[in-house]
Design brief:
mainly alpha
């Protein structure tokens, strides 16, 4: 088995591998969180747009009814 120096032993230990996995997991979690926030923002925008359009349609229907009366 090949001897490794003390600097290499500091870089390639099981603890450091776990730290790297933890960092990768955090990055993946932030990515998923960001995608989820974007989806929620688009959904809220779409709902607000539908409510706004429905409000406009209802006002037009009411105004047409007042003109014919």
């Amino acid at each position: 088995m090949r001897e490794i120096g003390w600097a290499q032993s500091l870089l390639f230990t099981r603890e450091n591998e776990m730290i790297m996995f933890d960092i990768a997991e955090w990055i993946a979690n932030l990515l998923v969180l960001g995608i989820g926030i974007c989806i929620w923002a688009v959904a809220v925008f779409m709902i607000a747009m539908i409510v706004s359009m429905a409000n406009r349609w209802i006002k037009e229907i009411i105004n047409k009814g007042e003109e014919h009366a």
